[in-house]
Amino acid sequence: MAHTLTLPERPSQPRRHGVTMVIDSGIPLRAFEDIVESFAPLIDFIKFGWGTSVAYPLVGRKIDILKSHGIGAYLGGTLFEKYIIQGKFDDFRRVCHDYGLTTVEVSNGTAAISHEEKSLYVEKLAHDFEVISEVGFKDNSQSENFAPKKWVESIERDLVAGARLVTLETRESGRGGMCRPNGELRYGLIEEILDSGIDVTRLMFEAPTNDLQSYFVKRVGTNVNLGNIPSDAIVSCETIRVGLRSETLLEFER
Fold first, then answer.
1. Using one digit for the tens of pLDDT, what is the confidence trace for 83-133?
2. Per the structure, how many domains does the chain have?
3. Predicted local distance difference test score (pLDDT) of residue 231
4. 3-state class of 90 per DSSP?
5. 15 belongs to a structural domain
């Protein structure tokens, strides 16, 4: 039955903004297929988190399911870093080609890869793929010491190198990167990034919790790009986006 509610407008797929990236941390194949078939209109990308695509042998079948629904897929940035520290960049590129992927993630959240070197990898891969880079460290002490100015510089460098989107790190636990060890968002950091002049539609904020999703929808808007959404929170995230959950119920009634 059609509703008569007035809700914020969401772009139709394929979306260039208002993107929702769901993280797959090892979902069983049949459950994965059910999730995709049930929620395809709400999903823009699924990322196979960290190195799960190596540990789970059926990832190729998952990618085929996503292709049949027009949903993007890419391998976790931690896996990219594993290839780099073993000197196997060309193997990483080949694996992505073999899977038929059109998107890759480039990060340096764990490995000792400089921001300048990371941007060079973005530039190399941008010739063959749509690149989503990631800025921010997974380690809490490194995150705390990574000044907002450095975040902005790294984001800008990756965009110039050819990244379509730059993801702002928050681990699936909701800690690290943009968040402090206790899970509290680094609000000053976010404001400096938003005040920097960077096009916010080129940023994707990892927001695995309801609190983070609600904050970014309120601060940036309905069509903020959100990532690391758990597979059991896809519908919940969409309701937050359009004011159908208590956290944002009144946000769009002004």
1. 999 999 999 999 999 999 999 999 999 999 999 999 999 999 999 999 999
2. 1
3. 97
4. helix
5. no
Q: Residue 173: how many CB atoms within 10 A of its CB?
A: 12
pLDDT at 254 exceeding the cut of 80: no
Asked whether residue 241 is assigned to any structural domain, the reply reads: yes
Q: Which domain holds residue 217?
A: 20-248
pLDDT digits (tens, 9 = 90+) for 191-215: 999 999 999 999 999 999 999 999 9
pLDDT at 169: 87
CA distance 219 to 231: 24
